[in-house]
Design a protein that fits this description.
39% of the residues are buried. The chain has 227 residues and is α/β, with parallel strands linked by helices. The chain is built from 10 helices and 7 strands. The radius of gyration is 17 Å and the shape is globular. Helix 10 links the parallel strand 6 and strand 7. It comes from Eulacestoma nigropectus. One of its GO terms (molecular function) is xylosyl alpha-1,3-xylosyltransferase activity. One of its GO terms (biological process) is protein O-linked glycosylation via N-acetyl-galactosamine.
């Protein structure tokens, strides 16, 4: 077993010029903080990791594993041809809220709608990054360009604060083929904040998750069930 520790400052230095443009659209703070770049690590991981690293699983710290993480690696084999990232859907109506203006202008849209037919956006707590595919995807790398980020944020009237998750969600609305959607049981989010903030009527359509949970995600400091 080999453990390699990466220096955060070093990574941030490499990341900043790549993700600077998107930070103003998807960061919590006002303006572009240099330190915020680390919240966009997954977006440009393929540009800063050594070429010999072809696949990476990136996970949040507030997770509890109910199965062997090795099983999650098998999901790479299920990627459709053009997919570069594996990610689960967001399980709250956060993007129903964020895309409110686009939804008002496009009443028939699936953007922000709940599963199974809607596009509820993504949650980046569990990420499968096929670095090789990310490097080779012309489309994905075009989407990192500042002009493309600007174009999409304008189209969707998008202003977020959740870093990489916002970027993947917005791109997923436009190019769903770039993503392999993980089953909710691989990222069973527990946060219920939006239930109490104006969306109780539709909340359960987003929050429900059938099947045996493989990974619990205690997002927004939600306690994770004991065994």
């Amino acid at each position: 077993c080999q453990v390699i520790v990466h220096d955060v400052n070093e990574l941030t230095e490499k990341l900043f010029p790549i993700v600077e443009a998107m930070q103003k659209h998807f960061s919590a703070g006002s303006g572009t903080y240099y330190s915020d770049s680390i919240f966009f690590l997954s977006v440009a991981m393929h540009r800063i990791m050594p070429k010999e690293i072809t696949r990476i699983i990136q996970v949040d710290l507030d997770l509890k594993y109910k199965t062997n993480i090795r099983d999650l690696f098998d999901e790479f084999d299920n990627f459709p041809e053009r997919a570069v990232i594996g990610i689960a859907r967001e399980m709250q109506p956060v993007y129903r809220h964020t895309f409110w203006q686009y939804r008002r202008e496009n009443p028939q849209t699936k953007v922000g709608e709940p599963p199974p037919d809607g596009l509820p956006g993504f949650n980046s707590g569990v990420l499968l990054l096929n670095l090789e595919a990310m490097r080779q995807s012309k489309l994905y790398n075009q989407l990192l360009e500042p002009t493309m980020v600007q174009k999409l944020t304008e189209k969707y009237h998008f202003k977020g604060h959740l870093g990489d998750q916002d970027f993947f969600t917005m791109v997923g609305m436009e190019h769903p083929e770039l993503f392999h959607v993980l089953d909710c049981t691989w990222n069973r989010q527990l946060c219920t904040w939006w239930r109490d903030h104006g969306y109780s009527d539709v909340f359960d359509q987003y929050f429900q998750c059938e099947g045996e949970v493989k990974i619990y995600h205690g997002n927004c400091n939600t306690p994770i069930p004991e065994d």
